[in-house]
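New to this. Look over this protein:
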Amino acid sequence: MGKILIQVKNVWKIFGDRAEEALNAIQAQNLSKAEVLEQFNCVVGVANTSLDIKEGEIFCIMGLSGSGKSTLVRHFNRLLEPTAGEIIIDGIDVMQLNTPQLQKFRNERIGMVFQNFALMPHRSVLDNVA
């Protein structure tokens, strides 16, 4: 295994009207999620996450329900915009793509299947993606 295909660098997703302010406070004061909610009425969905996924690698993102797995993955194709951080896929800085470039990127380079919407439970994995 060699080439890194997906890089996620220091990604934060904070939901709420005061997300930037909350992030600055987290970084300056090391606030907990509960403190962020109380002080800024914001919810931390992804906290300072970094990872590399290499070509040919089987990579699993595991966690409890509500821990931010789907939130993180939705950043790969910018269905969600991160509050901070970088996402680089096959050398492309996804955060720098304008709307037409992002649409082309989504059409040609990346896809997503939503488990509760598009998968058919009576079909195999192969049949679901074929």
